[in-house]
Each structure stands twice: as C-alpha cells, then as structure tokens.
Amino acid sequence: LDKAIKNKAETHSLRISRADSIRSIVSSSTGQERINTLFSLYALYESFQADSSLSVLRQFEALPEYKTDNKFQAYIEISKARTYGVMGLYTDANECLQKIDPDSLDNRGRLNYFNALHALYGWMADFTEYSQPNIASNLRDRAASLHDSILMLEPIEQNRTIIRTNKMYDYGQYKECIDTLLHYLNEWDTMQEIFAYSRLAQAYEKIGDINNTIHYLALTSLGDLENGNTEYMALPLLAEYLFSEGDEERAYRYLLCAMEDATYCNAGLRTIESSKIFPIINEARKESEQRQHNRNSIIQIILIFWGVMLTTGIWGLRRQHKRLQHVRQALSETNNSLKLSNMQLQSANKKLIETDKMKEEYLLEYLSRSRKYLASMESFQNHLYRLFQTHQMDELSKQLRSTQ
User: Fold this and answer.
1) Which of 56, 92, 127, 309: CA 20 to 30 A from 242?
2) Cα–Cα distance between 259 and 21 in angstroms, integer?
3) What is the C-alpha separation between 88 and 93, in angstroms, rounded?
C-alpha cells in the first residue's frame, strides 16, 4: 500500500493518457460509435474525476439519441445522479432520479435505477450520521428495503451473492456475511473483490475484530489505488485506525493521500470525512515531531558533553606522555652515570690491587659490596621500568621520590 501511494501519480497519469486518447476519437466519430466512445470515456472518469465525468454526460445530452430514446435518457439521468452523489450534491442527484419512472424501463434500466437509489440513500445516511442520526437510520432502512428489488433484477450470480451479503450486513448478520464473502472471494473479478474486501472490513468492525478490519481496509485501499480510483472511503478509515494504534506517521500520509484524491475527484462526502479526522492526526504528528526534536536536542547536548570530556582526556594523556618522556630521559641519564661510576670503580679497584697486596682481603670485601650495590641498583632500575611499563605512574613517582 505504501508503494501504491508512492506510485499514485504514475497511475493517475496512465489513466489520464487513456482518457486523452479516447477523447481524441470522440470528435471524429458519429452515431453508435460516438456513443460507445463516450461510454468508454465516462467509465474512465466515473470514479476518478467527477467534473470530467459530468462533462461527458453533458455531451450525451447533446446527442440526438438523448432527445428521442427514453431508455437512453434514463440511463444518462441515472449516471448523472451517481456523479452528483459523488460530488455531494444529493439534492441534484435526487432530482435526476425523480425524473425517471422505473416502471417504464426494462429490467436492466430498473436495476441501474435501484442501484443508484440505493447508493444515494447510503451517501445521504453517511452524510447525516453524526448531525442527524435519526434521519441517517431512516435512510439506511430505505436503502435496505431495495435489496429484494435489486436481487430480483440482477442476472449475474456473483453480483446476486454480493447483494445477499449486503442484505445480511444491513440486518446485522455479520458472521454469515463474512463467511459468505470468504467462501466466494476467489471466484470474483477485481472490482467485485474490492467491494468484498470493503464489506469484510465493515463486518469485522461490527464484531470487534480490529486486526481483520485493518487488514481488509488495507486490501480495499490497495485495490482502489492500483485501479486509479480517487473516490473511495477505505483509506481514510484505515488512517483513523492506524492513528488509534499509534502509527501516526503512516496515518498522516494515508489521510493526506485520501484528501488529495477526494479534492482531485471533487468527491464532497469523502472530503468531509477526511477533513474531520485530519486536524487531530496533524496535531498529533506535530506533537510527535516536537518530541523528536526535543530528543535530538538532548542527544546533541550529550554528544557535546562527551566531546568536551574526550578532548580533555586526550589533552591530559598528552601531558602525561610528556612527563613519561622526561622520566625516561632521567632514567637514561642515571643509567649512563651508573655505568661511568662502575667503570671508575673497576679502575680504582685495579689500582688498589696493584698498590697494596696487603689490602687485598679488604679490597675484595669492598668490591663484593660494590657489586651487590650495583646489582641492587640494577634490580631497582628494573623495578622502576616495570612500573613504567604497567603504567603504575603513582607508584613510580613515589619510588623515584623515596630516599632509597
């Protein structure tokens, strides 16, 4: 669904290109060919752009057939009623249907008439649901009363099944409605599937199954967007559910998409539906962005603090390193001094041996002690070096300052 929303402009562009291609044929066609071409153009605009759809229907009204063929005239009036209904012009839609005598129509014409009347009652019920619930309930009852008439006239078995599930839903038989739709789902074409998904979402909502409600609203929305429809109800409902589940960012994007499409289509009811929830989601999104901004500011302060600490630590290590270099140099100088002293002692020892053999025993004792001293110094030097290697700087400093 995210991908379909991202590719929405491309999908719309393809639909517009097809409409432009068909429109270019209209002016050069006549008679039945012109009527068929206009029907194709109307089918492209029907759930896509209400103003363009109405424009095509007005082209039908300019045809000679419209003035002479009552059935054709009734079909155009029914189509206008549907288009006005999409635009939210329910009074105009009702006036179009009032012009028609259903008894004068054939079965197909009456089926179109009752379907249009059923849709109009549904739209009007949705529009008045919050402001005038009693009127909305009455309108839904009137829509439900048309099911039997539509069922008698519908020749296609798959559509008859859909009508039966509509009837189940309207009379509160939600479980039976769900079971029937799931049983026949794989046998239907794309448009029937989209309707089935929508009705499944509504039925699952009634029985409190939120996960399946969201699942089938997403499938309905995906079908609408992939088919290039801009008049739909599933996506804003899905956005509302996602918002309640805490997915504010996706809810905002979905609702923004729905509002753009409703405005583009000039779908009055869908624009109102989206506008009701959009300020709430938009405000929540702004608050979420502010919280994220605050978190980022705190993180930046922490990073700056640790940066200062790291810089201070590096500076301290550099000073310590310089001190160690001085200690190393002092140790080297001491070692050289000890070597020189050792050489001098050896020279003096030789002179003493040559001068007075009588003092040999004394000198030997002296030299023995000197060697012990040197060994002790060397051991002490090694001890200091090990302290340096193991970075025991405090102990090293202590040893160097001692009188030992």
Assistant:
1) 127
2) 28
3) 9
